[in-house]
Amino acid sequence: MKEVVGQAAFEGEVLNSPGAVIVVFEAHWCPFCRSFMPIIRAHEAQLPAPLVASILDDWDDPLWERYSVEVVPTLAIFRGGRLAFRIDGILGKGLAEEDVKRLIADFRNVAARAV
């Protein structure tokens, strides 16, 4: 999993990618992210697209607002530079293994209708 920090790095790794990219928006200070990241890493080999962790440690990072990230972790699929699908974390809970399995199961349908 590649980690990116900031808008420029995000654009380079995610928005300018020729194929689909799975993004997990996360923050190192978030306890729910610390619980979720080992889960997503355990499933990384099963993911149908490259995984990028967008680190949102800085509250001033424009990606919070640009993609309306209200809770971390949040999972998203980008294709052709566009947000195609997302699974938002739940406030006070985050994400769980079921969310990763849902993302994998829904990926083909989501990727096909994007762009």
Describe how the helices and strands are arranged.
Elements: E1 2-5, H1 7-15, E2 21-26, H2 31-42, E3 51-55, H3 63-66, E4 74-79, E5 82-87, H4 97-113
Parallel strand pairs: 1-3, 2-3
Antiparallel strand pairs: 2-4, 4-5
How would you characterize the overall build of this protein?
By secondary structure, the protein is α/β, with parallel strands linked by helices. It has one domain: Glutaredoxin, CATH 3.40.30. 37% of the residues lie in helices and 23% in strands. Strands 1-3-2-4-5 form a 5-stranded mixed sheet, with helices on both faces. The longest helix has 17 residues. The model has no long low-confidence stretch (mean pLDDT 93).
Q: Any key phrases for this structure?
A:
115 residues; alpha/beta; 23% strand; Glutaredoxin; globular
Mean pLDDT: 93
Write down the domain tally: 1
| CATH hierarchy, class | Alpha Beta
CATH architecture: 3-Layer(aba) Sandwich
Q: Structural class of the secondary structure composition?
A: alpha/beta
- CATH fold annotation: Glutaredoxin
Note the beta-strand portion.
Answer: 15-25%
Which residues sit in consecutive blocks of at least 5 with pLDDT less than 50? none
The helix-strand sequence is EHEHEHEEH
Report the biggest beta sheet as strand number plus sense, adding barrel if it closes: 5 strands, mixed
Q: Can you list the strand order of the major beta sheet?
A: 1-3-2-4-5
- Approximate shape: globular
Using the CA coordinates, give the radius of gyration.
13 Å
Query: Gap between N and C termini, in Å?
Result: 24 Å
Helix proportion of residues, in percent? 25-40%
What is the CATH homologous superfamily assignment?
Answer: Glutaredoxin
